[in-house]
Amino acid sequence: MFQSTHMREFVFTLSYERGVDTLVDAFIDHPDVKALSTTCVATAEHMWRVDNLLGPESALDRIEELFVDESRCNECHAVSCDTERSYEVLDRAPTYRVLYTHRREIRGCHSIPYLTVEHVGSGVLFETERTGHTYEWTVLMPDDTGVGGLYDAVNAELRDGVTLNLEHVRGHQGWRAETLTATELSHDQRNAIKAAVAHGYYETPRECTITELSERLDVARSTLQYRLQRAESQLFAAVVDEMP
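The chain above was modelled as a monomer; its predicted structure follows.
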């Protein structure tokens, strides 16, 4: 007989001071870079994940170099562990990278994936987002599991200069349904779209003209118009492809 399982989402946000972690420092130095996981699954022995890095090319080159360094742990919030790990670049373009990670023997890892599996068990999904000084983990877990013990376990292991915040999410967030579409846009296109939305360019009536927006961004009007048109065309095409 089929039994329905109710799921809950919790967001664990780790905030780092500068100097605590070299990879975080690179994100702090490049606040326009964002890392989003499209897949992150862990068992008691293994962890697999795929991350999209979005941002300008020079910043991504530096962050990718640190990300795939097998001598360091990208997940540990305490001291770095000695678990076996391997990385592969699945896709690369000037303004994005797609990186695959496989970690073995994660029992020795001081990380949210291992501690979640230890306290909650299997059947847990993770999303992550890195930007600036924060590393955010969204955990989807069965409703009948307690999150208090997990929070205490993570909080007890934090290294100096790292703080933890826990939030209960009400309603599911789509699990990065937009991520694959976002990777198709260039860094300049994403900035143009974000600015246009922020300044009311798409409101009715419009709160900002293309000329005013180009002046705010210090970009030629024709260049901005081209970026918006290309971004809109790609986004609309992606939406249509998803329609039944």
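The radius of gyration is 20 Å.
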